[in-house]
Predict the structure.
Amino acid sequence: MRPYAQYCPVVRAVELLGDRWTLLIVRDMVVGGGAARFNELARGLPGLSRALLSRRLRQLHNAGLVEHTEDGYALTRAGEDLRPLVFGLADWGARYAFGDPRPEELDPELLMWWMHGRIDTGDIDKRAVIQVEIADHRRKYWLVLEPGEASVCYTDPGFDIDAVLAADLPTLYRMWLGEIELLDAVRAGTIDLTGARWIIRGLPSWLRLSPIAENVKAARAR
């Protein structure tokens, strides 16, 4: 990349973070608690090739923002200090640049990957299998919740289905991002949630929304 040739801290920051995908890698590490495995990053950024992901991680490592760990990668102190920037961008974007979703922005497999990683299994004492039906894509996915672990299956795992969550993809994204509440959508009929009563009662508290849902909620409230 051609340098900007300006002695300014903003310029230096842009030179480190301005390449395509770099900030999204940092975003995923920040919201994931500061650490991630390579395959997790690749799964959460499906438009990014593994070769380019390796290159960007190497650049972040050389810049002192990321370090290698036994399990993968972790943000350094300098990387963690980007947290306010990431959430500041989320806040600004939610207020000024976040309109209706475009079809190319809605990836059902990516949404399922995000959702399964935000399920709190602390109150789950037996297996719960939730079939997610996305009508406008004619696709089904399965969230398999176990005590202490949640996984997502893209093919039928072969377990009995305990509950079914059905909606169109834009509605599920809006729920995930905090624009609408799950129970409000169920009452309105835009999301259908049926099955075992203990799952219907528990899912709204088990499913923690996107880490930037509070930014979106605040922007909508304004």
